[in-house]
Amino acid sequence: MISKGQGFTIVDSLDTLLAMGLTDEFEEAKAWVRDELTFDQDGEVNLFETTIRVLGGLLSAYDQSGHDPVFLKKAVDLADRLMGAFKTSSGIPYASVHLGSGRGVPGHEGGISTTSEVSTLQLEFKYLSYLTGDDKYWRVAEDVVMKMKDLDSLDGLVPIYINPYTGQFHGEEIRLEYLTKQYLQTPKTEPVYKEMFDYAMTGVKKHLIGRTIPNNLLFAGEIFKYSPSTLSPKMDHLVCFLGGTMALSSTEGKLLNKTFPRSGFSQDFRIGEELTEACYEMYHQTETGLAPEIVYWVKDKGQITGKNEREHMPGSDSIINDRDGHNWLRPEILESLFYMWRFTGDEKYCEVSSGGYSSIHDIRRKDSIAFSDKMETFFLAESLKYLFLLFGSTDVFPLDKYAFNIEAHPFPIFVPPKDAMKRARDNRAREEEFERAALEAEARAAEMHPVCRDASRLQSWHRHGHHLRTTALFLACS
């Protein structure tokens, strides 16, 4: 914690105020940022949360305010302090940073970092490099993704933790995090991000998708690395971003209702629609009309026994445990509804968005609601913004011209600087050279071992996306 605070709520809300035309409130917030906001403080902050909320909020406010220098100056000061988190032996950043000194601080869980967090910093750091002409922010953020790309995965799915000391994945739980926005931010000039996303989507469809009873809803569950054939029906509200992200990737920001008929929608788009429907049912099937933090979808009747029978509402598709019944005003369902409405023009996505919101302890009991004295900043930065956009014109933040970061801060799509383009080409050239060298080495090994000359044995070569992974003399032939 830091003594003076960072004004998370104020900074996170700047572009929402501008989008809604609340000029007086925006000017008041800007004055606070100019006169009161300081990052020269003795305290630790989470790298991910500070990047997406504060750095992202400042950068979006800079763009939306017509490039008011107040916001860029503060953004550069903050980013320079956050850079200390990337000073690790692997280049994978620490989970936190000491603001005053700019020193990286290892995570509290044995020093490891969260995979989703370190791979969700790129939009902000790349955009800052574009604005300042200093590629140091771009390099550290891009290097994280490139290092992760070269690690083993399960059909593009990666574990939830990564070690900043070794650069290796850690833990068993596997989840998907978004990549497609990076591909769209620099208008399709970095295809590696689309390739990584498409590969991960192969894993999602193969390992994470399930169906419920009795309403046959499609959901995205969880698996464990060492038992990938067993799908856990656990689904966090956080996963509800996925439907909209699949729609965004499928369309690349184009409005489908204006370009081709509904029959032309891709399989990924249709899966995204169904996932969004399941997330809506997380709300619709409770007494209060609000979703819990986590549900366990019912895949078969055998789940509804003992304690689960008490926590299952008859006729619903999910089980809500006592510890998971709270609602924190999360925005992920609104994000997906927003994308679906933009792409399809279907009014049903507006109709299901018109309910009220209140942070409460337990959404399962309408007759005994206990309100929480807490409002997260994402309610203003994301939830209200997506609701405002859902009922507004599609000309506001068109999706072929803006990329929203994970906190719903819109950044303009831009052509990356030439040196970044050169690095991307160099990265691709190195990968191709590696693949050629690997193929030649394995071919020579096969020639030396007669048992491997049989073409069928060569199937033990393992490809991960476009990156050929070699084993020591193909273990099968050694």
UniProtKB/TrEMBL annotation:
Q: Does the keyword Membrane apply?
A: no
Q: What class of enzyme is it?
A: hydrolase
Keyword line: Calcium, Disulfide bond, Glycosidase, Hydrolase, Metal-binding
The UniProt entry's GO biological process terms, in alphabetical order, are: carbohydrate metabolic process; ERAD pathway
Q: In which pathway does it act?
A: Protein modification; protein glycosylation
Q: Please give an example of a GO cellular component term from this record.
A: membrane
**SUPFAM superfamilies, per this entry?**
Seven-hairpin glycosidases
UniProt-listed Pfam families:
Glyco_hydro_47 (PF01532)
Q: Which Gene Ontology molecular function entries are recorded, alphabetically?
A: calcium ion binding; mannosyl-oligosaccharide 1,2-alpha-mannosidase activity
Q: Per the record, what are the reactions this protein catalyses?
A: N(4)-(alpha-D-Man-(1->2)-alpha-D-Man-(1->2)-alpha-D-Man-(1->3)-[alpha-D-Man-(1->2)-alpha-D-Man-(1->3)-[alpha-D-Man-(1->2)-alpha-D-Man-(1->6)]-alpha-D-Man-(1->6)]-beta-D-Man-(1->4)-beta-D-GlcNAc-(1->4)-beta-D-GlcNAc)-L-asparaginyl-[protein] (N-glucan mannose isomer 9A1,2,3B1,2,3) + 4 H2O = N(4)-(alpha-D-Man-(1->3)-[alpha-D-Man-(1->3)-[alpha-D-Man-(1->6)]-alpha-D-Man-(1->6)]-beta-D-Man-(1->4)-beta-D-GlcNAc-(1->4)-beta-D-GlcNAc)-L-asparaginyl-[protein] (N-glucan mannose isomer 5A1,2) + 4 beta-D-mannose; N(4)-(alpha-D-Man-(1->2)-alpha-D-Man-(1->2)-alpha-D-Man-(1->3)-[alpha-D-Man-(1->3)-[alpha-D-Man-(1->2)-alpha-D-Man-(1->6)]-alpha-D-Man-(1->6)]-beta-D-Man-(1->4)-beta-D-GlcNAc-(1->4)-beta-D-GlcNAc)-L-asparaginyl-[protein] (N-glucan mannose isomer 8A1,2,3B1,3) + 3 H2O = N(4)-(alpha-D-Man-(1->3)-[alpha-D-Man-(1->3)-[alpha-D-Man-(1->6)]-alpha-D-Man-(1->6)]-beta-D-Man-(1->4)-beta-D-GlcNAc-(1->4)-beta-D-GlcNAc)-L-asparaginyl-[protein] (N-glucan mannose isomer 5A1,2) + 3 beta-D-mannose
Question: Where are the membrane-spanning stretches?
Answer: none
Disulfide bridge positions per record: 240-279
Essential cofactor(s): Ca(2+)
For this protein, what is the EC number? 3.2.1.-
State the similarity comment: Belongs to the glycosyl hydrolase 47 family.
Fetch the PANTHER family from UniProt.
ENDOPLASMIC RETICULUM MANNOSYL-OLIGOSACCHARIDE 1,2-ALPHA-MANNOSIDASE, MANNOSYL-OLIGOSACCHARIDE ALPHA-1,2-MANNOSIDASE-RELATED
Q: What is the protein name for this chain?
A: alpha-1,2-Mannosidase
The major lineage groups are: Eukaryota, Fungi, Fungi incertae sedis, Mucoromycota, Mortierellomycotina
The gene designation is MNS1_1
